[in-house]
Amino acid sequence: MEYRDLGRTGIKVSPLGLGTDNFMDPTPADESARILNRALDAGINLIDTGDVYAEGEGERVIGKTLRENKRRHEALIVTKVDHGRRLPGQTLEEYEPDFGPNQHGHSRLNIIRACENSLKRLQTDYIDFYLLHRQSPNIPIDEILSAMNDLVRQGKVRYIGCSTFPAWAVMEGILVSEMKGYARFVLEEPPYSLLDRRIENELIPMCVRYGVGIITWAPMAMGVLAGRYTDEKSYPETSRAALRGGFYAERVTKQGIEVGKEFSRLAGSAGLTAAQLAVLWNKDQHGVSAPLIGPRTMEHLENILPVMEMKLDDDLRRACDELVPPGSAVANFHNTAGWMKMKLVADMD
């Protein structure tokens, strides 16, 4: 298997990363541990989680598994300090259940508190990549980077990055770090799939230019590209749209489902499952270091693992571009980021 450079860090990452948002919600601990072990056996070395995943239980099961199998040294752990902002339509009470106003977001106070808690749950002395999970636009970036820099200097964090930031904000972070001698963003983690290609317009060119690695989430568009949904208002019982609702359900659109149907037929004609083609397309796009796969079951993982050895041919690439043109979108996977405005391809006449 060919490992890839992550930006300008010198770190080599597997062509697929293991996303663990399903760990403990709904995948139980024993199966989560088996999935993690199988991924490591297959050569995947990038393990992505976050402090809000299953309210910290995702980190906890990863830490327990890596302690028991004694394979912490094989894993590059990516975790995040929470979203940092209320979601659209979310009340303050919904945003801060059982917490005070200073236990969310990207203040120095909360970044340090959250990092210490993640280290305890992960049962490790250091985090390989620590990311800001969405922007905290009301907090100056130099205040945020100062706190992140202190964690790097203390040896608790190796590298820093961000998730679902606009290109200008990643660039701002790089400039402030260069001016003040702080640790620099080395990684951005955006949503990216054939259904939402908007990062191709600015984010990918900027990251390539300045040596920022790109780890993408939702390459299968939450299962829409895998043909899991047949109606934008009726969801499979075990789907995220059904189990979690809210902004997950908003990502299931009529246009996306129609593209998913055509995409499934295209995958079948190429001798692939729709899930395999979705991940393959993502993996071999310009500027992508690795997409994250988020298997709910061991069967899901086994279906995707062969993609690590595949290459996307030009005919398939062109056929995908015909379904959704470069730089456009038919579903909004940036709907937890208030800075990204949505206009469906169907409306662009």
Write the layout of secondary structure elements.
Layout: E1 4-5, E2 12-13, E3 17-19, H1 29-41, E4 46-48, H2 57-69, E5 76-81, H3 92-95, H4 108-122, E6 127-133, H5 141-153, E7 157-163, H6 167-180, E8 185-189, H7 203-210, E9 213-216, H8 240-244, H9 246-250, H10 254-269, H11 274-283, E10 290-293, H12 298-304, H13 314-323
CATH topology name, in short, is TIM Barrel
Number of domains: 1
Report how far the terminal alpha carbons are from each other: 44 Å
Report helical residue fraction. Answer: 25-40%
What is the CATH level 1 assignment? Alpha Beta
Low-pLDDT regions: 84-88
Radius of gyration: 19 Å
Main sheet summary = 8 strands, parallel, barrel
Which structural class should the secondary elements be placed in?
alpha/beta
Describe this structure in words.
- Helix 1 (29-41) crosses helix 2 (57-69) and helix 4 (108-122) packs parallel to helix 5 (141-153).
- The chain has 13 helices and ten strands.
- The strands form two sheets. It has an eight-stranded parallel beta barrel, surrounded by five helices.
- The chain has one domain (4-223, 286-313): NADP-dependent oxidoreductase domain (TIM Barrel), CATH 3.20.20.100.
- It has 349 residues and is of the alpha/beta class.
Please tag this protein with its features.
349 residues, alpha/beta, TIM Barrel, eight-stranded parallel β-barrel, two-stranded antiparallel sheet
